[in-house]
Design goal:
This protein is an all-alpha fold and about 80 residues long. It has four helices and no strands. Helix 2 (about 15-40) runs antiparallel to helix 3 (about 45-70).
Length: about 80
Amino acid sequence: MQAIKGYLSALVNPHLAARAVRVALFIGTLLFVINHGVAVRSGTMTQARWISAGLTYLVPYAVSIHGQYLGRGGSKGLEQ
């Protein structure tokens, strides 16, 4: 349970978020173009696709935070 609480607090840690935002914008945009580019160009984006597009950016953010969190030693690393 401590690890989950540590990870959740890491999601909003400003020291980790700066890099995670850059990763999310770069990787998320690549994935957005791959998965939704044709629908955007053809004007067929639905509400469900826009929700999916938002998740396209949230997932790389969460993965980047997770990697940084583990790289700093989990919850112990954030306290250092």
